[in-house]
Amino acid sequence: MRIGELSKRTGTPPRLLRYYEEQGLITPERCTNGYRSYDERLVDRVQQIRGLLDAGLPTRIIKQILPCLDRPSTIHFPDPTPEMLATLECELDRMTRRIDCLARNRDAIAAYLATVRGDDPPATEQGAAEQSRAQQA
């Protein structure tokens, strides 16, 4: 398939697909006329790459773990190195901190909107935990 079809099927702009190629994340075949030809399996690969990028992984780490991705949503390391495990643990910690920050910001915005609208404050994970502790006391 051509780059336009891969773009359409994955929702990824052609320019970004070319960037993935530059970074070594995908490798299309080249036709005799020089056009890129994308294999069907690259649809899943591009979606995996996008998911990993959305999760906050940088392309240099994605490039390292892509060979271990054998199908969508599955990561398998037959022989992980200590360096790879340490890198992934650091990324997991970073994502957890990011999720916590996003949750705090979400809760603050929800509380602000509730105040402005005159609604009851929304139940948040943190607020629910505080209410539960207060009821147990």
UniProtKB/TrEMBL annotation:
One of its GO terms (molecular function) is DNA-binding transcription factor activity. It comes from the Bacteria. Keywords: DNA-binding. Gene3D superfamilies: 1.10.1660.10. CDD domains: HTH_MerR-like_sg3 (cd01282). Residues 1-68 form the HTH merR-type domain. This is MerR family transcriptional regulator. It comes from Streptomyces liliiviolaceus.
